[in-house]
Design goal:
Layout: H1 8-29, H2 35-42, H3 46-62, H4 64-74, H5 76-96, H6 100-115, H7 118-128, H8 134-162, H9 165-186, H10 199-206, H11 217-223, H12 234-243, H13 245-276, H14 281-306, H15 313-333, H16 341-367, H17 374-403, H18 413-419, H19 424-443
Helix pairs in contact: 1-5, 1-6, 1-7, 1-8, 1-9, 3-6, 3-17, 4-5, 4-17, 5-6, 5-7, 5-9, 7-8, 7-17, 8-9, 8-14, 8-16, 10-11, 13-14, 13-15, 13-16, 13-17, 13-19, 14-16, 15-16, 16-17, 17-18
Length: 444
């Protein structure tokens, strides 16, 4: 295999690393097609059902900075291995849970394992590929993750119907054993002979400008082989990453773009389509699959656009936010609360751009920070969308219960219509923060 940045060895290392991320997405989205089954299995309402995903996402978001620090200090391979262990243990516990508290604890373990995958893969990408390819490969990473989402929307949805709860989730858990073996045996986290990035090298890169920061990182890191490699204190590393306006802009871009599709796919999409829109579970599963394919399409499109230069980043972000908000406004305002199928399809296609646009936030964090704190800065930025997702999951669940007093196991179209209006709260907040920080980043 060819060595060096961007060669076949780089793609091989990426493919092994990304298998851990695909596994994480499978586990992350598994509840999205099992929400109605979970409500029946554990005897819970909408707010309690939302707690499963909220706890999972809360743990994920809370672990982003610690995971970034772990990746910066111990390398992505070890972190990916730990993530695979936690995902397997959490999903296995969830498969055999019959009561709400242990099932909730299992989702928390899954969230912790999930948190360890994406940032680790981004660090592998930064070490193996030239800087100009980083945005494209990051988008391809997100696209590969959507393959995991396909497993849940197609395979798991059918397995739950035919094989039942315990057998289906146990099979998902056992996938982690295979992924652990692949990473342990085959993954190299950096090209042979590559010097480990040092704080001194990173500091030299920091003044090179956002566009050239990572581009010069490889050369600086190589030249630092004989330099001191003392790492800065953890508090200093977090503080410096947060003080960088590009990191905070990345967080708010991720916050604002990711959450609509994320909340829909993680939990509320299937109930909304089945109970709120009267679709069959088969039709709802097909529509959720469309969301996944749209995400793949936009991942390729945005990857190509972003590889041309950083000037396209903000136009992509603002266009996705505006289009998503406009589509939801039309759907929720539709007379009678039952928009036609073609409008639902348009909405899902537009929301397919959300995940790919959120990766632009990580690109802001990557390009405005020196190499020695890329994991920490990426972790901070990656918190954004999951914080917004958590707020959305909770907001919709609480509003569904409030708008359906005394209801049984289902909710009306009017209740879903009112509850989904909550989407505009984090969307407006995030857009305001993006516009404020955009000026600060330009001034740096």
């Amino acid at each position: 295999m060819l060595q060096g940045p961007g060669g076949r060895a780089a793609w091989f290392a990426w493919s092994i690393g990304v298998s851990g991320y695909v596994l994480a997405v499978i586990h992350r989205t598994s509840l999205g097609v099992a929400g109605l089954d979970a409500a029946q299995r554990f005897g819970v309402g909408a707010a309690a059902l939302a707690t499963f995903s909220i706890v999972q996402v809360l743990v994920y978001a809370a672990m982003q900075v610690p995971v970034g620090l772990l990746v910066d200090r111990f390398g992505p391979r070890r972190v990916l291995l730990l993530g695979a262990v936690l995902l397997t243990a959490g999903q296995l516990a969830f498969a055999f849970s019959t009561a709400f508290p242990p099932a909730l604890a299992a989702r928390a373990v899954i969230g912790c394992g999930d948190a360890m995958t994406f940032i680790s893969v981004l660090r592998i990408v930064a070490r193996w590929f030239p800087a100009a390819k980083n945005p494209l490969v990051a988008q391809l990473t997100g696209l590969a993750g959507m393959g995991g989402n396909l497993v849940t929307t197609v395979v798991l949805a059918q397995a739950l119907h035919s094989e039942g709860w315990t057998a289906s989730f146990t099979a998902l858990a056992l996938l982690g054993v295979l992924v652990f073996a692949l990473i342990a045996l085959l993954l190299r986290e950096a090209p042979p002979g590559a010097a480990a990035p040092s704080p001194i090298a990173g500091a030299a890169v920091a003044g090179a400008g956002a566009g050239a920061a990572v581009a010069s990182a490889a050369g600086a890191a190589g030249a630092a082989g004989a330099a001191a490699t003392a790492r800065p204190p953890i508090r200093e590393q977090i503080r410096d990453s947060w003080r960088e306006p590009g990191t905070r802009l990345g967080l708010w871009v991720h916050f604002t773009t990711q959450f609509p599709a994320n909340a829909f796919a993680l939990l509320w999409g299937l109930p909304y389509l089945v109970e709120g829109q009267g679709r069959s579970r088969g039709q709802a599963g097909g529509l959720l699959t469309l969301l996944v394919f749209a995400n793949m399409f936009f991942g390729l499109l945005f990857g190509r656009l972003l590889s041309r230069g950083p000037a396209v980043r903000m136009p992509i972000v603002l266009t996705v936010i505006a289009a998503t908000g406009a589509c939801w406004a039309v759907v929720l305002a539709w007379p009678g609360g039952h928009p036609p199928l073609w409008l639902i399809i348009v909405l899902l296609v537009v929301m397919g751009s959300n995940g790919s646009a959120s990766l632009v936030g990580l690109d802001f964090a990557r390009s405005h920070n020196p190499v020695h704190r890329l994991g920490t800065a990426s972790g901070i930025a990656n918190m954004g969308g999951f914080i917004a997702t958590m707020l959305t999951l909770l907001g919709i669940g609480v509003l569904l219960d409030l708008l359906s007093p005394g209801s049984g196991d289902t909710y009306s179209a009017a209740a879903y219509r009112g509850a989904f209006c909550w989407l505009f709260v984090p969307m407006v907040l995030g857009t305001v923060m993006i516009l404020r920080l955009r000026a600060k980043v330009r001034a740096v």
